[in-house]
Design goal:
The structure is a single chain. It contains nine helices and eight strands. The chain has helices spanning 2-23, 32-42, 44-63, 115-181, 187-221, 249-259, 261-281, 321-386, 392-427; strands at 28-30, 70-76, 101-110, 231-233, 236-237, 288-296, 304-311, 438-439. The strands form three sheets. It has a four-stranded antiparallel β-sheet with strand order 2-3-6-7, with no helix packed on it. Helix 2 packs across helix 4, helix 4 packs antiparallel against helix 5 and helix 7 (261-281) runs antiparallel to helix 8 (321-386). It is elongated and about 140 Å long.
């Protein structure tokens, strides 16, 4: 039911997005959830993962199948002179042939020791493990798409910053040209500012290239939908409040161990291997084949007769010990894989939590004063330079400091967003397309 609801929801999101694309010629702004929804609609790897589920379900049908019965019909004594003058009960006339003999038999294999039930339980565990693998693929691919999305957003923000600086230098250059004509600044100071303006233009060109590359990388993940190079990432950031009250590391680890689909899949495969081991041990109990039949033989003293019986293979020389030993090894390997996955989950959670805490603190430091300080220093230096109270080198250094601070801030915001989703990935949080990240602008 959840998968049906999810497919319907993502289809609706994709349809509304495509309608908006057709209605507008300019760049289309997309949220991270919209990009992930498009990815689910188009990505071949997830479709291939779905095929594994279908195969597991087919295996479950095979495992639950009951052996078909066997019907045998045999006609014998077809010679025209067979049993002639035999005086048998079926020969109605002396000196005439009695006719052919007819045999009808039925056989049915009956499995004992609960083998079929074990096969069914084993295949059900396999199906559930495939479904867990599919959810794990969603977990991994979702994070991959989000990383590409925020890489595009970072490139866009660097482009906006580069454009702002180019426009700023254009205004300053116009003012400096007038000041140079009036003798307020020297030609060397004018040329230094002009060279910085040219450098800013080069930065703008490089930033535009980075945006196009990020759009192309995202388009590849989305299998290059129409107008994919017109996609523009919205400036939306996940907030710490999305986790609620931050629990302890142990609580985070406990939550991840309960939610991670890869660990669930490994445990289900271990349960499946346990059933396969029990099934292998019960192979030494032979299955029984029931036989029953009816015969009509006119040339015999007894005209009609029936029979019933059974056949059992005797496990005298081989008792399937090899199958049992092989299944035991497979069970040990499955349990070891689950233990290794659990250890990896603990490490993932601790690492992701530490990264999230660190990046969140860095962003808070920027917001608590560093951004305002950089802007204040830039404006005061520019004012002082316009009045001749500051040198051109101080002015240029203040501009560069502002640019570097803003770039570092954008990088910190992107790192924080990626750390948030990496923590979600480590915890195994399921995708919630209704979740609306906290949005705020710093252009």
């Amino acid at each position: 039911m959840k998968s049906i609801f999810f497919k319907a929801l993502t289809s609706l999101l994709l349809l509304s997005f495509l309608c908006a694309i057709d209605a507008q010629a300019e760049n289309q702004q997309l949220s991270v959830d919209e990009v992930v929804s498009i990815f689910y609609q188009r990505n071949l790897d997830l479709i291939a993962a779905q095929y594994n589920i279908d195969q597991a379900r087919a295996d479950a049908i095979i495992a639950s199948a009951i052996p078909n019965p066997t019907v045998n019909i045999q006609i014998s004594e077809l010679s025209s002179n067979l049993n002639k003058n035999s005086g048998a009960a079926g020969c109605s006339t002396s000196g005439a042939a009695c006719g052919a003999a007819e045999y009808y038999s039925f056989s049915q294999l009956i499995e004992v020791a609960g083998k079929r039930g074990l096969r069914i339980e084993s295949s059900n565990f396999g199906t559930q493990a495939s479904e867990s693998d599919f959810r794990d693929a969603i977990r991994i691919f979702s994070n991959m798409v989000r990383n590409a999305y925020y890489q595009l957003l970072q490139s866009q923000k660097n482009l906006w910053l580069a454009q702002e600086i180019v426009d700023h230098y254009a205004d300053i250059s116009k003012a400096n040209r007038l000041r140079m004509k009036g003798g307020d600044i020297s030609e060397s100071d004018f040329l230094r500012v002009k060279m910085e303006a040219m450098r800013a233009q080069s930065d703008l060109d490089a930033a535009q290239t980075m945006v196009e590359q990020a759009q192309a990388n995202l388009a590849v993940l989305l299998r290059w939908p129409a107008k994919s190079l017109q996609f523009e990432a919205k400036e939306q950031w996940p907030g710490a409040k999305d986790f609620g009250q931050q629990p302890s590391k142990e609580e985070f680890i406990s939550k991840a161990l309960q939610q991670r689909p890869d660990l669930e899949g490994d445990k289900l495969r271990a349960d499946q291997a346990d059933k396969q081991l029990e099934l292998a041990r019960r192979l030494k109990y032979p299955d029984v084949t029931i036989n029953a039949g009816y015969a009509r033989d006119p040339g015999n003293t007894v005209l009609t007769s029936g029979f019933v019986g059974f056949s059992v293979p005797l496990p005298l020389f081989y008792q399937y010990q090899g199958e049992a030993d092989k299944a035991a090894v497979h069970l040990s390997q499955s349990r070891l894989a689950a233990e290794q996955t659990e250890l990896g989950i603990r490490n993932d959670v601790i690492s992701a939590l530490a990264t999230w805490t660190s990046t969140n603190k860095i962003v808070q430091r920027f917001k608590e004063g560093l951004l305002d300080d950089a802007l204040t220093v830039r404006n005061s230096s520019e004012l002082s330079y316009s009045k001749g109270a500051a040198s051109v080198l101080d002015f240029i250094e203040a501009q560069r400091t502002y640019k570097n601070i803003m770039r570092d801030y954008y990088a910190a915001e992107i790192a924080r967003a990626n750390a948030y989703y990496d923590l979600e990935k480590a915890l195994g949080v399921q995708l919630d397309t209704d979740k609306a990240p906290v949005a705020h602008n710093h252009q």
